[in-house]
Amino acid sequence: MPLALLALAVVAFGIGTTEFVTMGLLPQIADGVGVSVPHAGNLVSAYALGVVVGAPLLTGIGARIPHKRLLLLLSGLFIVGNTASALAPNFGLLFAARVLAGLPHGALFGVGAVVASRLVAPGRAARAVATMFLGLTVANIVGVPAGTALGQQLGWRYAYFAVAVIGLIAFAALAFLVPHQPRGSQSGIRHELRAMGNRQIALGLITAVVGFGGFFAVYSYLVPMLTHLTGLSDSSTTWVLALYGVGMTLGTLVAGPLTDRALRPTLYAGLVLLAGALVTFYFTVHSTVPALVTIAFIGAVGSLITTPVQMLLMAKAENAPTMAAASNHSAFNLANAGGAWLGGLVISAGWGWASPTLVGAVLAVAGLGLAITGGVLDRGSRRSPVVAKSAGAGVGTGADTGQLSARGREAQDAQEPTR
C-alpha cells in the first residue's frame, strides 16, 4: 500500500474526531456559551447539515480541479472551520462554525476514496479505500476519547484547536505524500451529475440511509442504554465507545479484502449480521460482558456495510465517481439523523431504552431488501469497473504508469462483476 494512503487516513482521523468529540463535550460547551445541554445538542445537527450540503456542493464546484489540489483546498476549509469553532464567542457563531467544519467532510472522503482507489491495482481498490477509512475508526478509539478528556480538563475550545492541529498535519501529509492525479478530459459538473442519474447509485444511497440508519438508531442512545440497563457508570462509557471503535477497526480490516473479492455478497452479509447483532443486543444489554461483546460485534459488522456501499457507488458512476463517493457520506449523515429520530421516537413512546435495537434491526432488514433489489436489477447489465480509469492511476506506486495500467486492465478482466 502506498504511503499516500497514510495521509488520507490522517485526514479521516481528523474528520472522525471532530464529528464525534462534540457529543462528549456538550455539558462543557453549554456552560461556555450559556445555553442548555439539549440546545447545545443542535451543534451535532449543525455539523451533519454541513456534511449533507457540502458533499455534493463542494464536489460539484471542484469537479475540474485536480484531485490533489482539491484535497488541499478542502483540508484548508476543514482547518478554518475547526479553528472558528474554537474561537466562536457565542452559540450562534459556534453553530455557523460547526456547519462550516462539516462542509468539507463528505467531499474529503469522496475525493479521498477516488484517489485511494487509483493508487493501487484495481483488484486492491477496496482495500485501499478501507485503509483510508481506518483513520475514521481509529478516531473512535483514540481521537474522540483524547479530545473529550482534553476538553473536560482544559476547556472545550482546546478540543477544537487540537482537531485544527490534526488538520494541519493532514494538510502537510497530503502535500508531500499524495501524487498528482490529473482530471480526465470528460471531467466537470455535468459529467458528474450525468453519472449520478444511474438508478444503481440512487438505490445504493437509499440502502445506505435505511440500512445504516439501523446502526445509528442504537449508537445514538448507546450511553443511556449502558447506564440505565447495563449498569455501567458514566465514567466507563467513554471506554465502551472506544471498544465500539475497536470493533469498527477490525471490521474495516476485513471489509476491504472481502469487498475486493465479492462486493454485493459482502454488503448482504453485513446487513444480515447487523440485523442479527441488534436483535441479540436487545437480550444481552442487561449483562455487562455479553453486552460489551455484542457492542464490539455491532461495530465490526457495521464496517461490512460502509466499504462495499462506497465501492458500489464508485463502480456504478464509472468514470465520474467523485460526486457519488462524496454523496455516500451525505447518505450516512441522513442515516445518523433518521436512525436517531426513530430510536428516540420509540423511547418516548414508552417502549424502553432497549427498543432502539429492534428499530435498528428492522431498518437493517429493510436495507437488505433494497440491496437485494439493486442486485436483482443489476443482473445481466454490463460490468462496471470499481476503479475509474484515469491517466493518474498507479502514480506514486513505483511502477511505470503504462505498465501498471496494462496490469490493471488484466486484473480487471480477471475480476468478478461487481454485483
From TrEMBL:
Q: Which residue stretches, if any, does this entry annotate as coiled coil?
A: none
Quote the protein name from its UniProt record.
Answer: MFS transporter
> Keyword annotations for this protein?
Cell membrane, Membrane, Transmembrane, Transmembrane helix
Tell me the CDD domains matching this sequence.
MFS_NepI_like
Q: Transmembrane among the record's keywords?
A: yes
Bilayer topology? Multi-pass membrane protein
Matches recorded under InterPro entries: MFS (IPR011701), MFS_dom (IPR020846), MFS_Efflux_Transporters (IPR050189), MFS_trans_sf (IPR036259)
The residues that cross the membrane are 42-63, 70-89, 95-116, 128-146, 158-179, 200-219, 239-259, 266-285, 291-313, 334-353, 359-377
Recorded GO MF terms: transmembrane transporter activity
Basic and acidic residues composition bias: which ranges? 407-419
| Domain Major facilitator superfamily (MFS) profile residues, every copy | 2-379
The taxonomy runs:
Bacteria, Bacillati, Actinomycetota, Actinomycetes, Kitasatosporales
The record, for PANTHER family, names:
CHLORAMPHENICOL EFFLUX PUMP RV0191 (PTHR43124:SF3), PURINE EFFLUX PUMP PBUE (PTHR43124)
Chain residue ranges for the region called Disordered: 387-419
Where is the protein found, in the record's own terms?
A: Cell membrane
Give the species this sequence originates from.
Streptomyces montanisoli
Any Pfam family hit: MFS_1
Keyword Lyase belongs to the record: no
Superkingdom of this entry's organism?
Bacteria
GO-annotated cellular components: plasma membrane
